[in-house]
Amino acid sequence: MNKDVSLSELTQDGIAAAYELINSAIVSYEGREVGTIASHDPNAPAENYSECFVRDFVPSAIVFLLDGRTEIVRNFLQLILRVRDMQEELAGHHNLPRVMPASFRVTIRDGKEVLKADFGDRAIGRVAPVDSMMWWIILLDFYVRITDDWEFAHSPECQRGIRMIMGICLRDRFEVFPTLLVPDASFMIDRRMGVFGHPLEIQSLFFASLRCAQTLLVAGKENEPILEMISQRKNNLVTYVHDYYWLDAARLNEIHRFENELFGKENSNAFNIYPESIPEWVAEWLPEDGGYLVGNLSPGRLDVRFFSFGNLLAVLFGLASRNQATRILDVFEMRWPDLIGMMPLKICYPAMQGTEWHLMTGSDPKNTPWSYHNGGNWPCLLWTFVSACLNLDRKDLALRAMDIAYHRLPGDQWPEYYDGRSGRLVGRRANYHQVWSASSLIICKKLVEDPSLLAKLGMTPAR
Ligand code: GLC
């Protein structure tokens, strides 16, 4: 790197290159721009990287919204509603809930455009895209806040979409907790990684979805029962996550001395967690004043891995309390080499190794220790870190992390992820020209220049 090149020049060139990538990734359908493909890498290891993924489109959509290119976001939201109705029935299922697709593509057959979606029925590993419908409603909320287009949000098609999402999320099944029970790999981590049950990222998105539905559903007699359910579930979810997902030094000490086999409503170890199951690293690693929300919780299982995205989304949408939010950022600051390192951000800390890797990932060579989802570093997550920092008056941390990304990402051709403990190496099987790596950087620049945009988008942490 030429030391004479100042950061602002670098930033300008980098941002111009990022825009070039996003613009070249736009997907059109029926003459309208409707999304962006995930990666422009002709050598991408999987065929579906040329599709428009719902979760990958969100950072692009934020860029479009902030640039006044709001049509494309509206078109996307509308198209996803249409695509949802294309989901095939499954024999043996009664009234299959209509979910939103993980991704879609537009192909040309006999000179005509053909729309094809993946509801997990084509995806590698047949994973269920539970997060898609949550991102859809969050994006609708962003769109309305920026455009004030309430007419669209209140249209019958959107209201039907919102009610359907809430219907699926709030439907009673075998639940005994206010958190949402989901199958394995049903969100950004869409491979086997021991993230089944009640993973944090889904709970943060679930909370955000409930919050969005409260403002987007038309008030009135028809929606009264569902709004009442939403409000109760949201309150219970917050209390539950604060009580059981939060981990700091005091709580760790409590868990370390847990008694077991306790029956009844009021007991300190409700989930029968055996203290012996808590890995040794955590007592060393957890900073004295910091704290974070653990990755997952179910009977006898407290997954204390640190998942950056779930924690930051909890900060941004207000699932974490103000005090928790500050202490989550403290963890980033105190464990900077582990969580930011040579490329922000580490997706999950620490990596699983040895037998644990064999058993939990199913010996997945893409998820070897410190690679990909298993402890890789993902630039697409940077915008959530920068947003959280700006919201909590830690612009210094935001700039430090951005500086690292600006110096590497454009020159490295926007890799999807990086490998190694500190994220030094371009990911072994990472795509180049990964669109959300580029859009993430553009969002960061915009937010640092004008942090009031966060409130405009509705990303306000708990007070
Ligand atoms: C990988 C990621 C997933 C992402 C997709 C497209 O499957 O795990 O989160 O949406 O690639 O980039």
Describe this structure in words.
- The chain is mainly alpha-helical and 463 residues long.
- The chain has one domain (7-88, 97-457): Alpha/alpha barrel (Glycosyltransferase), CATH 1.50.10.10.
- It is 46% helix and 10% strand.
- The chain contains 18 helices and 13 strands.
- It has a three-stranded antiparallel beta sheet. A two-stranded antiparallel sheet has the order 1-2.
- Helix 7 runs antiparallel to helix 8 (224-244), helix 11 packs parallel to helix 15 and helix 16 runs antiparallel to helix 17.
Count the domains. 1
Largest beta-sheet details: 3 strands, antiparallel
Oligomer: single chain
Q: Can you tell me the CATH topology? A: Glycosyltransferase
CATH C-level: Mainly Alpha
C-alpha geometry: globular
Rounded to the nearest angstrom, the radius of gyration is 21 Å
Query: How many angstroms separate the termini?
Result: 42 Å
Percent range of helical residues: 40-55%
Which ligands does the model contain, each kind named once?
A: alpha-D-glucopyranose
Spatial ordering of strands, largest sheet: 3-4-5
What's the count of strands?
13
Uncertain regions spanning at least 5 consecutive residues: none
Q: What structural category do the secondary elements indicate? A: mainly alpha
| Average predicted confidence as pLDDT | 94
- Report the β-strand fraction as a percent range: 5-15%
Q: What is the annotated CATH architecture?
A: Alpha/alpha barrel
